[in-house]
Fold this sequence. Notes:
By secondary structure, the protein is mainly beta.
Amino acid sequence: MPTVSSVHASNVNRSMIDRWSDVGTRFSSRLLKLALINVVLLVVVPMIVHAQAMSGTTGFLDQFDVPVLMVGVNSVADDYAPVWQASQQRLMISTERSGTTEVWQVPYEARNTSSMPQPASIVDGTFNEHNRWRAYLSFGNNGEAVGVAFVAHEGQAWPTIVTVPVDDRALNIGHPIPTILRNGFDSQPALSPDGTHLVYVSDREGGSGGLDLWVCDRRTDLEWDVPVQLSNRVNSQGNEVTPCFISNDSLIYASNGYGGKGGFDLFLVVLRDGVWQDPEPLDWFNTEFDETDPMRLPDDTMLFASNRPGGEGGFDVWMARVKASLGKP
C-alpha cells in the first residue's frame, strides 16, 4: 500500500491518484499500484500484437463519433466514474473539485436538445457526508445501488463496497457487504443490470497480479456469495480497474496489462456460454494517455474518463455519441 510520500514522489502517476483519506491515512483509491506500470508494461509488450488484432472483431466501435470533452461536467480537479441513475434520469460523477471526493450530479443533454447544460451540484444524502471521501456508485435496473466508502477493519481503514439506500434524490450510506469486507483494498463496483452479479476491483490474494476484477453472485436468499476471480483470461499481470456492465453479459473495463496504445486502455469482454471470452481493446476511445471509468448512457452514448490533452485538468469525463447517420437521438 503506497503512502502519501510515495504517491507524491511520482509526478507521472500523481494524476491517477484518488486522494481518499480516513483517520489520517491516504490511499491511492483509483489504481493504487501505479508505480508498477512501467514494470508491468515491460512484461506484457509481447501481448500488444494479440490485443490489437482483436480490435476490429465486434463492430461495436463503428457506431461512435470521435470522443469530445463533456460540457458543464468537468473541473480543474479530477472528475471520473460517470454513472446513470435511471429512476431520477440523471448523470452523476465522482469529483475532487471541493478538495475531497464526492458524488455530484449533472443533467445530461441528449443530442438535438435546445436546453443549456446545468452546472454540476453535489448529491444530497449521507453518502456525501462532509470530508468522508466516498465515490464510485453503481446502479442496477431495479434501483439498487452500491458505492465505495472507507471502513475501519482490524484497526485500519480500507475502501470497501457498501450499500447505498436511495431516498428519492438523496443517496445515503448503508453497510459494508459482509462477504467482501476484509483488511485490504476493494473498490470500484459494477452491478449487472439484472442485479445478479457484482464485479469489483481488489488486491486480494489469488488474483493474476496487481489489481484484478472479482465477482460475487447473488444467492437465492438475495445475499452476495463469496467473491471469486472473474477470469484469468480477463485479469492480467498488470492492473484491471473501473468495470462497468453495458449488458448482463458484456463488461467494459480499463487495463494496463495487455499492451495497447499506452497507459490504461479500455477493453470489452463478453460472457458466452458461461465463459468470459478474450478481452477486446476499444481503440476508438484509447490513446497513449489513460482511459478509465467507461459507461454507456440510455441513448447509447459512451462516457469515460481520461487525462488526455484538451481537458479541464487531471482526469475529465469524455463522451462519444452514436453517429447521427445511424438515426440515434
